[in-house]
Amino acid sequence: MKWIRNLKITQKFILLLVVTLLSLLVVGSLGFTQLISTGKKLDDMYVNKLKPIETVTSLKTNTQYIQTALVELMVNTDQARNQELLSKMEEIVKDNQQHRKSYQTDNPDELKLLNSITELASQYKETQDKIIDYAMKNQNTEAYEVNHLIMLLHHLNN
Fold it and tell me: For the Chemotaxis methyl-accepting receptor HlyB-like 4HB MCP domain, which residue ranges apply (predicted)?
């Protein structure tokens, strides 16, 4: 410690400045590496956690829209409105297929669930086609009798 007392004032200021700069450099580099690490973790969380939730939510919303459109098809007798609903439903079905194809996860339970949803979706599509066929012919009572759709929707939403 005696050597610090023997330094001139300018040398003491330079030493103080060097120590301060080194401390600042260490703190800054630690902060920067932690920022990069946090960014990677956030990207991982977005890709592996948020995107699958967003996909599943979109699938559920689309399925509910299709259910609503089917009920409107059964109630409505206007052919123009029926065609409009049918084209919108076809777009949503394609969107759902795309969502199921793009769904990526490493979790085996989620993949198993996705496979069961895909199977149910094909059964749902068959029932939906029957209802659409009846509704487009304005055979609404026959469309109401096709009640398997309700059970399939229940399985899809659970």
Answer: 6-146
Sign of CA dihedral 146, 148, 154, 155: negative
Per domain, the residue ranges of the chain are 50-157
d(CA 78, CA 120): 30
Quick: pLDDT tens for 32-45: 999 999 999 999 99
Instruction: Answer for the pair 58, 31: CB distance below 8 angstroms, yes or no.
Output: no
Q: Are 52 and 92 spatial neighbours (Cβ–Cβ below 8 Å)?
A: no
Helices (H), the chain: 2-6, 9-45, 51-75, 79-102, 108-136, 140-145, 148-157
C-alpha torsion sign, points 126, 129, 131, 137:
negative
> Which residue type is seen at 27?
V
pTM: 0.67
- Phi/psi for 137 (5° steps) reads -90, 5
Q: Is the dihedral of CA 38, 48, 94, 60 positive or negative?
A: negative
Cβ 89 vs Cβ 67: under 8 Å: no
Instruction: For 60, list phi and psi in degrees, rounded to 5.
Output: -65, -45
CA dist., res. 101 & res. 64, Å (int): 20
